[in-house]
Design goal:
The complex is a heterodimer. Chain A is 0% helix and 53% strand. Chain A is built from no helices and 11 strands. In chain A, the strands form 2 sheets. In chain A, strands 2, 4, 5, 6, 9, 10 and 11 form a 7-stranded mixed beta sheet that branches. In chain A, a hairpin with a 3-residue loop joins strand 4 and strand 5. Chain B is mainly β. In chain B, 0% of the residues lie in helices and 51% in strands. Chain B is built from no helices and 12 strands. In chain B, the strands form 3 sheets. In chain B, strands 2, 5, 6, 10, 11 and 12 form a 6-stranded mixed beta sheet that branches. A 4-stranded antiparallel beta sheet of chain B has the order 3-9-8-7, with no helix packed on it. A two-stranded antiparallel sheet of chain B has the order 1-4. In chain B, a hairpin with a 5-residue loop joins strand 5 and strand 6. In chain B, 36% of the residues are buried. The model of chain B has no long low-confidence stretch (mean pLDDT 93). The chains are: A mainly beta, B mainly beta. The interface between A and B is medium-sized, with 25 and 25 residues.
């Protein structure tokens, strides 16, 4: 069974640009969550999507947005990139059941120059 | 609001020695508890989880953890570590009421000394 797939693995952008990251969940998983990991702030929750609807949101500015498609694949977009957006962005998926854990992809490492 | 405290940022241990990684949490409601491991340049892999029931939880790679409600702790243990256990370990909580958000601790870097 294929795991959570995130593309691309690495990305370099400059300040002011925008970026879109992609996440394909495990087959049958309908919930997709996104996290940002930085050395300073650790792992922080961005948002969660289920059935194409944002179900939960963390404390990030509106420059961070996402969406989910009918096949459960999800994309995350960051506009007007700042140096502080450099991070590992992790996607996690799970079955829609309260006692099911989240399964993580290997992440997209975003570097802002 | 929930929070997780991992008291040790780095833990060096000799190979084949036992190890305990500490995790304490704070929450006004009951919680689900998790331990994840992160190897270099990889995502997070689930080691074990506590949802309810037996307070001693066994996970993959020989790890286990014990939920202690009175001390609000969920410490991770392994009786004999191997070089391949070198990684960063994260404790996390979520609430059991459908909230997907995982709240993570700051992580503990486990270094195995040959």
């Amino acid at each position: 069974k294929a795991g959570v797939t995130q593309t691309p693995r690495y990305l370099i952008k400059t300040r002011g640009q925008q970026v879109t990251l992609s996440c394909s969940p495990i087959s049958g998983h309908r919930s997709v969550s996104w996290y940002q990991q930085t050395p300073g702030q650790g792992l922080q929750f961005l948002f969660e999507y289920f059935s194409e609807t944002q179900r939960n949101k963390g404390n990030f500015p509106g420059r961070f947005s996402g969406r989910q498609f009918s096949n459960s694949r999800s994309e995350m977009n960051v506009s007007t990139l700042e140096l502080g957006d450099s991070a590992l962005y992790l996607c996690a998926s799970r079955k829609d059941s309260n006692n099911q854990p989240q399964h993580f992809g290997d992440g997209t490492r975003l570097s802002i120059l | 609001a929930q929070s997780v405290t991992q008291l040790d940022s780095q833990v060096p241990v000799f190979e084949e020695a036992p190890v305990e990684l500490r995790c304490n949490y704070s929450s006004s409601v009951s919680v689900y508890l998790f331990w994840y491991v992160q190897y270099p340049n990889q995502g997070l892999q689930l080691l074990l989880k506590y949802l309810s029931g037996s307070t001693l939880v066994k996970g993959i790679n020989g790890f286990e953890a014990e939920f202690n409600k009175s001390q609000t702790s969920f410490h991770l243990r392994k009786p004999s570590v191997h070089i391949s256990d070198t990684a960063e370990y994260f404790c996390a909580v979520s609430d059991p009421f459908g909230n997907e958000k995982l709240t993570f601790g700051t992580g503990t870097r486990l270094t195995i000394i040959p």
